[in-house]
Amino acid sequence: MARLMPLAAATIAIATIAVASGTGTAQAQSFPGIGGSSGNNPLSNMTGGAASMLGGSLPNLSSASSGNVAGVLGYCAQNNLLQGANATTASSTLSNLTQKPDITSSSAYATGQQGLIQTGNGNTFSLADLKGQLKTKVCNMVLNKAQSFL
User: Fold this and answer.
1) How far apart are CA 128 and CA 134, in angstroms?
2) Alpha-carbon span 42 to 70, nearest angstrom
């Protein structure tokens, strides 16, 4: 148990730094040497208690373009990350978005199809780094954002 305490203290310190920065979002933070394969969001692979302290380490979609959101929505649909009514809504929303000019030809769309959300300032958030229900939660957020572009 004593071995876990430094990790818990480090996690709290990271959460404190993220909150103290004033951004309110973890993805804008850079903590060299701390987990995560995306490089731009080292906290994105966290789940459980530490992740919930940071809002589940979920991305802020406010800077994501319509092309990127459409691409990510396609990724979510292709990987069956949306279920039931949300899957049906996603299909319709994606169809409507991809009919808009320049959506599917944008590099942001191609990035989104790889499961990468562009969160602004050159940062990306990888859905591949998330586990289980967090992926579904982010895909539901993406669906809501996509509908706002219609």
Assistant:
1) 11
2) 24
Whether 119 contacts 63, CB under 8 Å: yes
pLDDT, one tens digit per residue, over 118-138 is 999 999 999 999 998 999 999
Q: What are phi and psi of 125, to 5 degrees?
A: -125, 120
- pLDDT at 24 exceeding the cut of 80: no
What are residue 45's phi and psi, to 5 degrees?
A: -95, 5
Question: pLDDT (tens digit, 9 = 90+) per residue, 114-123?
Answer: 999 999 999 9
Instruction: Give the whole-angstrom CA distance, residue 125 versus residue 47.
Output: 15
Amino acid letter, 124: T
pLDDT-derived band at 56 (thresholds 50, 70, 90) equals low
CA distance 124 to 110: 13
